[in-house]
Structures are given as structure tokens and as C-alpha cells.
Automatic annotation (TrEMBL):
<feature type="active site" description="O-(5'-phospho-DNA)-tyrosine intermediate">
    <location>
        <position position="122"/>
    </location>
</feature>
<feature type="short sequence motif" description="GyrA-box">
    <location>
        <begin position="526"/>
        <end position="532"/>
    </location>
</feature>
<dbReference type="GO" id="GO:0005524">
    <property type="term" value="F:ATP binding"/>
</dbReference>
<dbReference type="GO" id="GO:0009330">
    <property type="term" value="C:DNA topoisomerase type II (double strand cut, ATP-hydrolyzing) complex"/>
</dbReference>
<comment type="similarity">
    <text>Belongs to the type II topoisomerase GyrA/ParC subunit family.</text>
</comment>
<keyword id="KW-0238">DNA-binding</keyword>
<dbReference type="InterPro" id="IPR006691">
    <property type="entry name" value="GyrA/parC_rep"/>
</dbReference>
<keyword id="KW-0963">Cytoplasm</keyword>
<dbReference type="InterPro" id="IPR050220">
    <property type="entry name" value="Type_II_DNA_Topoisomerases"/>
</dbReference>
<feature type="domain" description="Topo IIA-type catalytic">
    <location>
        <begin position="34"/>
        <end position="499"/>
    </location>
</feature>
<dbReference type="InterPro" id="IPR005743">
    <property type="entry name" value="GyrA"/>
</dbReference>
<dbReference type="Pfam" id="PF00521">
    <property type="entry name" value="DNA_topoisoIV"/>
</dbReference>
<comment type="function">
    <text>A type II topoisomerase that negatively supercoils closed circular double-stranded (ds) DNA in an ATP-dependent manner to modulate DNA topology and maintain chromosomes in an underwound state. Negative supercoiling favors strand separation, and DNA replication, transcription, recombination and repair, all of which involve strand separation. Also able to catalyze the interconversion of other topological isomers of dsDNA rings, including catenanes and knotted rings. Type II topoisomerases break and join 2 DNA strands simultaneously in an ATP-dependent manner.</text>
</comment>
<dbReference type="GO" id="GO:0006261">
    <property type="term" value="P:DNA-templated DNA replication"/>
</dbReference>
<dbReference type="InterPro" id="IPR013760">
    <property type="entry name" value="Topo_IIA-like_dom_sf"/>
</dbReference>
<dbReference type="InterPro" id="IPR013758">
    <property type="entry name" value="Topo_IIA_A/C_ab"/>
</dbReference>
<dbReference type="GO" id="GO:0034335">
    <property type="term" value="F:DNA negative supercoiling activity"/>
</dbReference>
Length: 806
């Protein structure tokens, strides 16, 4: 480089990038993306309205081509591209985007289905009447003007804004490092709240909620819950849950339909309908036969026609809320520019800023009008004095050589001011008639009153605020309307179970750990002694070990051979056909190697005063409070400590004060009071419940009830009911008494259950055959009997499990 560096200044590139980026960021924040808290407009919106006002495209005049407006704004005020201007113009004309449209559009300005607007050369626009309120008195020095981008003309820094536009229409914008998302509100409610705030400057956000219950969207709909409203009223940030209005209606005697009449704000209706249709095609919503969009100019109407056998329309509706845009969230960020700086505010602060700005506008307007009124009064004073000596004035004017001389002589001889003398010279002769004199005097008196009123406004705060209130009430009278969006006071979070149709199901578990869920209706009733139906196709050497009858809304507790317990919702188990093998439990539960599920308990809820009663195959018993099992992790928790070689036999729910009976495979049993077993923690071992005979093991247990019978079923398909009085109560730890005798070799008890006789029994064999019979077909017998045949088993097959159907 030459030695003479001239004006070259070395700059660190890091500092230069920092400064340049900050300048860019502030340019975007102030000049493009964020609204001003005073008029609620971004620069491009403000420039569009100002240009239309300058062009005279008002609400009561003919429409003009949109291209004319766009070109004027682009050439004079906003050199950022014609589409940026036209897109803004289109949004200001869309009744489903703006709560109070500022532009009256003629032509295709897009639709709620996401259809694009026509090109700007085809559409026409003019200002809506409410937009003219934004520019009212702009010519009266109410706002400051600044040079435009090329300093060839002036544009307003802000519009006078006769109502709180920021909250009325809301705003959305993404700047650099910050964003704003303000929902629209009802104008009548806003004005009522503003007037209340004027009268009560220290009002809290809770007091303003009495006037503004929440946002009011142009697309109607519902707001589910008030917490988000309270949050953004208080802090300027909150999350709203928006829902469309969907109702279940009868199409005819046999069919129902879900009718969607309103959708959430900013949701594309066509996309919503496509989304619902896709769920129907994917069979995620099985009960819907057809979806139709019957919307027209009168409003939205989307029909979801349900199938004739659809039993739970509420399930379909809840599913739509959960999985489609029929329910959305609206994150409120009440960010706007205050004196050129971005600031997040609560609703009271926004209204306070508007009130202060409105005071400034009215004061500047009043000063402007006072100055003009005083100047006019001064001229009228000159007229009246001139009329009092009109002959002398006329003689002076006629005798003057020119206008300048006449003006000077009027000022010298009659002490008129320069302005008065000029006005007298310009006065027409018709003002000399008596009637005109009366008009001048009347105008003079009116001006005196007007000047007194303006001085009162400028000198007294109360008069100023009363004027602001009167003007706000006038805006409310002309443009206010009824609220559209309904607010649900209490937000009920959608639980997954709200989306599940409650159905009776059978949970089947095999010895090798395959589980499945089958509708109970898949198993038809048969008489006692029938062959049953195929309930599961097991792989070779696998056997059905347990079945449980429950509903899809219940939780299933899975107890394992190692004393752990897992929890799984019934509806999350895979629903399959009767003959299906099922899915292995390792896909659902985090089982350790060699660990087996040996017991299932369906539960509706975990209530106080309930206990789990554990019985092991070696006769150890334990009682634990059910509430200790409320929080079961995905990895499972310890339920009982087991001795080496011992396993859980059964677990059932008690109230802590019942009589219990333990049954063994060889047909012996013992009954004792549950109160003999104190409540223990989850990781305890328990105490002895029964002393077993050689090669015997516990196969079942049950609580006792004198009003019920004990159902006993053996592996060879025999069963009976026994009255409770046949079982004397002993102390725990004894060897027990006979429950059932066997007439067949290798027969043994597989389980016991309390029954009333009104239930049905679902019995499963090891090979997967299931039979469903009425309990009252099982006869009542004594303890030392074999029972009656319940199932005729195939050769080599044995009963593995049974369950009761209420």
C-alpha cells in the first residue's frame, strides 16, 4: 500500500459486524416488524392508510384499484417491495383476519380456506369508516411528521388513533430476537375498560377483567380456560387454548353427526377438513363414515357423518380436539414500541399508554383549534368595527391610489391590524347588508364560546378527560358490536382416557408372556359343559396362564415372579382378534431376564382405605396400602420381598378388615381375619398364612363375604359353589380344611373367587380354548364334593385360568 493512506481507517471486523447487525436489528424492530403502542400499527400499515387518505379513497367514495394504492405507497413511503405492501393491504381487508377491518375490499381477497387473493390489478379498495377514525384530525397538528425515505415529502410518525387499535385488531410480527403476537379484542369492551381506567387510574388487571373478559376473535370459537387470559393481562404473556365450536346433532333416528360451525383463529378450514379426512382414511377415527364441507356465504358448516353403529360420538369429538387443528394454542406476547423501544406490557399498561397518547393528541388539536379560533375572532372584530363606520372605511378605500395605500391608511386611521385590514379589503359588498351583519355577530358569539371551551380543556384535566371519554363513547356507539368468542371459565385438560371409548374387554396372558386385548362381545355365551371357542392361537408348548375381564379405561397392575409390579393402561394393550397370539410383554414392560408376569389386577382408581393382599405359593401373606403403588415407574417397583424359590401366587384388593381364604392345589384351605396381618411396606417379606402339606402349593386366595358364595374350579374342568358358612374362621398359620375332593387323577384346584351367582364366568384352557357360562349354572355343593362339569376338555388339555364378568 502507498504510504499515504488517505481516509482509510482500520476497523476490527468483529466490532463492525456487531455494530452493523445491531443497526439492522433496530431497523427491523422499529421500522418493519413491531407495532407502535400508540396507534397499534406497523409502519407499512400506517403508510397504507395515510396514502389512501391523501388519495381521497374514503368509505363513501368509489373504490380504486389496489395497484394504485400499492404504487403510491411504494413510490412515496415504503420502498420494500410491492408484494409486501399488497399482502398487508389484503390482510387489512380480510374479515377473518382483522376483528375490525380497516380496508373495504372489492374482489377476491382470499378466503379462510387459504385461497390466495387475486392480483392487485384486479382488486379494488377503499378505506373502511373505522379506519378514518385512525386519521381523524391529522391535519390539525395532532402528530409529528417526518421526511420520507428520500426526503422529498413528509409522512406521519404515528396516526392520531381515536380508539385503542393495538388491542382491537391485535398484531403479529417477528423481529430480530423478539416477536409479538397480540390477539384482537372487542371494541365495546375495550372502550368501557378505557373509560373505567380514566376514572380509576390505579385500577388493577383484575378490575379490567370485569370489562374485558378476554380476546374476541373474528372467527368466533371458544377459549378453553382463563389462566392464559389472566397471565397476559397481568404480565403480557400467556397461552390461550382455542377451540372450534363442534356439536353433536341428530341427522335422523339412527344417525348422528358432528357439526363444526366455528373454527379457531388463524386455522385454515380446508386444511382442517383434509386433516380429518386423512384420519378417517387411516382408520384413526373408525366411527365417521363421511366428512363434508357445506360452508357458504352464511358461515362455516363442516359435517362429520357418523356410522349407524357409532356408540360414542363424544369420543370422536375429543379425538378431533386432541389430534387436529380444531383445538390450537395461541401464545400471547404483548410486545409493542414505547418511545421507540420494544416493551412487553400487560393490558392495563397498554391502555394507560393509549390514554396518555390520546391526551397528547387532544391537547395538540385543542391548541391548533384555539389558535385558529382566536385568529378568526380577531378578523370578525375587525369586520364589526368596519361595519360600524362603513362610510368612512369605504371613503378611505376609494380615495387610495392602490391596495397597499388603502391597507396602510386603514391601519393608521382606524387602528386595524394587518390581518384585519387585509380581510376588510377582501370583504365582498354583500356582507354590508343587515342580515350578513347578524351572521357575523352570531359567528362571533359562537367563537367566543368555542374559545372558552378550548381554554377550559387546556387548563383543566377533568375537562380534557371528559372530552376524551365522550369521543370514545361516540366511537363505541358507531362501531361497537357484540362479543363473538365465548370463554369457558374452567379449562378441563384433555386426559387421554377422554379419547377412549369404554368397552368391556378380556385381557389374556400366556405362560410365555404373550398378552392381548379382545372385546368381551367376541365370546358368546354357552351352556355349562360346552366345548368353548378358540380364544388364542398359542405357539407350541405355550399355555394360557391368566385371563382378566375389565374395561378399556382401567389400569392393569402386572405382578412378576420376582416380586415387582408394573402398571399399564388397558386401552394401550393391542386389541386383536380372538385367535391372535398377542404381543410379548417385553415390548411393554421392562422385564429382567427370566422374570415372568404371574398375576394381573385391573384397577379403576387408587382409593384411600384399600389394600393389596399378597399370597405366595409357599403360603406367605402380606398386606400393603394400595396408595403405595400410585406412582409406578416404567421400570417397575418392588411389591414384595420373596424367599428363594418362592413366587407370588395371587394378589387381590381388600379393605383391610375382611376375612380371607387361602386355597391350595390339593384342595385344602384356611380362612382367617385379615386384621391378623398388619400393614407392611412394599419391600417387606410378610408372615405365614398357611402351613402347606407335602408337595402342595397355594393356587389362589379370596376375601370372604357371608352374602356370597365361593366359586372353586379345578384343572379338569370341574367346578362348584360353596356357602361361606361352610368355612369356619381359624387363625393364620394352620394347615386348613378340605375345600374340594377329586375323583380324577392329576386333578387340582386352579383358583377360587367370590360370586353372587349373577355373574358370568370366562374360563380358559392351557391350549387357548375359552368358554363363557352363567355362574348360576354352577350348583351349590358342600366342601367335600367334586363339583359339576363346567368344560368338556380335549384330551391332554387342562384349565389354566378363569375370570368373572360382572
Amino acid at each position: 500500500m502507498p504510504e499515504d493512506k488517505g481516509n482509510i481507517i482500520p476497523v476490527d471486523v468483529k466490532d463492525e459486524m456487531k455494530d452493523a447487525y445491531l443497526n439492522y436489528a433496530m431497523s427491523v424492530i422499529v421500522g418493519r416488524a413491531l407495532p407502535d403502542a400508540r396507534d397499534g400499527l406497523k409502519p407499512v400499515q400506517r403508510r397504507i392508510l395515510f396514502a389512501m387518505n391523501e388519495m381521497g379513497i374514503r368509505h363513501n367514495l368509489p373504490y380504486k384499484k389496489s395497484a394504485r394504492v400499492v404504487g403510491d405507497v411504494l413510490g412515496k413511503y415504503h420502498p420494500h417491495g410491492d408484494m409486501a405492501i399488497y399482502d398487508t393491504l389484503v390482510r387489512m381487508a380480510q374479515p377473518f383476519t382483522y376483528r375490525y377491518s380497516l380496508v373495504d375490499g372489492h374482489g377476491n381477497f382470499g378466503s379462510i380456506d387459504g385461497d390466495p387473493p387475486a392480483a392487485m390489478r384486479y382488486t379494488e379498495v377503499r378505506m373502511n369508516q373505522i379506519a378514518e377514525e385512525m386519521l381523524l384530525d391529522i391535519e390539525k397538528n395532532t402528530v409529528d411528521f417526518i421526511p420520507n425515505f428520500d426526503e422529498s415529502m413528509q409522512e406521519p410518525l404515528v396516526l392520531p388513533a381515536n380508539f385503542p387499535q393495538l388491542l382491537a385488531n391485535g398484531a403479529t410480527g417477528i423481529a430480530v430476537g423478539m416477536a409479538t403476537n397480540i390477539p384482537p379484542h372487542n371494541l365495546s369492551e375495550l372502550i368501557d375498560a378505557t373509560i373505567y381506567l380514566i376514572d380509576n387510574p390505579q385500577s388493577t388487571w383484575k378490575e379490567l377483567l370485569e370489562y374485558i373478559p378476554g380476546p374476541d376473535f373474528p372467527t368466533y370459537g371458544l377459549i378453553n380456560g382463563t389462566k392464559g387470559i389472566h397471565d397476559y393481562f397481568r404480565e403480557g404473556r400467556g397461552k390461550l387454548i382455542l377451540r372450534g365450536d363442534a356439536r353433536i346433532e341428530d341427522l335422523d333416528r339412527h344417525r348422528k353427526a358432528i357439526i363444526i360451525r366455528e373454527i379457531p383463529y388463524q386455522v385454515n378450514k380446508a386444511s382442517l377438513v383434509e386433516e380429518i379426512a386423512r384420519l378417517i382414511m387411516d382408520k384413526k377415527i373408525a366411527d365417521v363414515s363421511e366428512v363434508r364441507d357445506e360452508s357458504d356465504r352464511d358461515g362455516i358448516r363442516v359435517v362429520l357423518e357418523l356410522k349407524k353403529n357409532a356408540t360414542n360420538p363424544s369420543f370422536v369429538l375429543n379425538y378431533l380436539y386432541r389430534h387436529t387443528a380444531l383445538q390450537t394454542t395461541f401464545g400471547v406476547i404483548l410486545l409493542a414500541l414505547i418511545n421507540g423501544r420494544p416493551e412487553v406490557m400487560g393490558v392495563p399498561d397498554v391502555l394507560r399508554h393509549f390514554i396518555e397518547y390520546r391526551k397528547e393528541v387532544v391537547i395538540r388539536r385543542s391548541k391548533y383549534e384555539l389558535k385558529n379560533a382566536e385568529e378568526r375572532l380577531h378578523i370578525l372584530e375587525g369586520f364589526l368595527r368596519a361595519l360600524d363606520m362603513i362610510d368612512e372605511v369605504i371613503h378611505t378605500i376609494r380615495s387610495s391610489q392602490n391596495v397597499a395605500e388603502a391597507k396602510d391608511r386603514l391601519m393608521q386611521q382606524f387602528q386595524f391590524s394587518d390581518a384585519q385590514a387585509q380581510a376588510i379589503l377582501e370583504m365582498r359588498l354583500q356582507r354590508l347588508v343587515a342580515l350578513e351583519r347578524e351572521k357575523i355577530q352570531e359567528e362571533y358569539r359562537e367563537l367566543e364560546k368555542r374559545i372558552a371551551s378550548l381554554k377550559d380543556i387546556l387548563n383543566h384535566e377533568k375537562s380534557l378527560m371528559n372530552l376524551i371519554k365522550r369521543e370514545l363513547l361516540d366511537v363505541k356507539r358507531r362501531f361497537g358490536d357484540a362479543r363473538r368468542t365465548r370463554i369457558v371459565d374452567e379449562a378441563e385438560p384433555l386426559d387421554l382416557t377422554d379419547l377412549i371409548a369404554e368397552e368391556d374387554v378380556v385381557i389374556t396372558l400366556t405362560r410365555d408372556g404373550y398378552v392381548k386385548r379382545v372385546l368381551l362381545s367376541s365370546y358368546r355365551r354357552q351352556g355349562r359343559g360346552g366345548r368353548g371357542v378358540t380364544g388364542i392361537t398359542t405357539k407350541e408348548e405355550d399355555l394360557v396362564s391368566q385371563i382378566a375381564v375389565t374395561t378399556t379405561l382401567h389400569k392393569i397392575l402386572f405382578f412378576t415372579s420376582r416380586g415387582r409390579v408394573f402398571q399399564h393402561p388397558a386401552y394401550q394393550l393391542v386389541e386383536m382378534q380372538r385367535q391372535a397370539k398377542g404381543i410379548h410383554l417385553v415390548n411393554l414392560l421392562q422385564l429382567e431376564e427370566g422374570e415372568r408376569v404371574i398375576n394381573m389386577i385391573p384397577l379403576k382408581d387408587f382409593g384411600e382405605g384399600k389394600y393389596l393382599f399378597f399370597v405366595t405359593t409357599r403360603g406367605i401373606v402380606k398386606k400393603s396400602d394400595l396408595l403405595e403403588f400410585v406412582s409406578i415407574t416404567r421400570r417397575g417397583i418392588r411389591a414384595i420381598n420373596l424367599d428363594d424359590g418362592d413366587e407370588l401366587s395371587t394378589v387381590f384388593v381388600t379393605n383391610g378388615q375382611e376375612k380371607v381364604l387361602i386355597a391350595t392345589a390339593k384342595g385344602y384351605g384356611i380362612s382367617f381375619s385379615e386384621e391378623e396381618v398388619r400393614s407392611m411396606g412394599r419391600v417387606s417379606r410378610g408372615v405365614k398364612g398357611i402351613t402347606l402339606r407335602v408337595k402342595d402349593r397355594v393356587v389362589g386366595a379370596s376375601s370372604l363375604n357371608n352374602n356370597l358364595d365361593l366359586l372353586i374350579i379345578s384343572s379338569k374342568g370341574m367346578g362348584k359353589r360353596v356357602k361361606m358358612k361352610k368355612f369356619p374362621v381359624h387363625h393364620r398359620g394352620g394347615k386348613g380344611i378340605i375345600l374340594m375332593k377329586f375323583g380324577q387323577p392329576e386333578n387340582e384346584v386352579i383358583g377360587v373367587q367370590l360370586v353372587s351367582g349373577q355373574e358370568e364366568i370366562l374360563i380358559s384352557s392351557q391350549n387357548g380354548t375359552l368358554i363363557r357360562i352363567n355362574c348360576n349354572e354352577v350348583s351349590v355343593q358342600g366342601r367335600a364334593t367334586r363339583g359339576v362339569t363346567l368344560v368338556r376338555l380335549h384330551k391332554g388339555d387342562l384349565i389354566s385360568s378363569f375370570a368373572l364378568v360382572e
